[in-house]
Design brief:
The protein is an alpha+beta fold and 215 residues long. It contains five helices and eight strands. Strands 1-8-7-6 form a four-stranded antiparallel β-sheet, with no helix packed on it. β6 and β7 form a beta hairpin. The longest helix is centred in the N-terminal third of the chain and has 23 residues. It is elongated and about 85 Å long. 23% of the residues are buried.
Length: 215
Amino acid sequence: MRPPTFHRVLSSLAALGLLALAGLSIALAFPATHPWLNTLPANLLLWGLLLGLAALTLQALLKRRWTSALFHGGFALVIVGGAITAGYAETRDIGLVDSPIAPPELCQADIGGETVSLERFAIETYPGSAMPKQYRSRLRFPDGAVREVSVNRPLRRNGFTIYQMSYTRGWDPYGNEVFQTILTVRRDPGARWVFAGYGVLAAATLLAAIRGGRP
């Protein structure tokens, strides 16, 4: 029996690496419940996968196996993005009060170094019903820009994404009803890498379909 060639061994290692990559990518989506991601073994695994994928991508490029190069390169981008997200993504909730007599600190919040103020919170209800159909917050930024965020319509600015999540209601000292809008602020520097990886993988899939499965 002929011993396995270097290429076969490398392909087998690549297959095992991709399986490990899939598991690691799932784990990276839940970093808070996987503290071991910050340990030395996890980092060694991550860098080992990246170096392996980089080597396979380079080998495919040298042999002009464009489909294979795109697949390996796309996987590398996805895992880089997942690692950046696990290490540097930020998510927090803020509450801003819509009341002309509320102290400024209750109507403002710091988002990415900018002091953002709530200009108005509004609720849209279904006709003939008190059930909320949509609710939105108008935010004012230090440069004078006024932007709106509503349910299913997040606001993106300076690398941060602001989501309209919910609201609460209460009463001021004079008995007037006031609302507090609840916003979720998220910054994910790894997202662009992940989406770039998905784009490369989609291109690889399309190229494979065009070439009939040839590398």
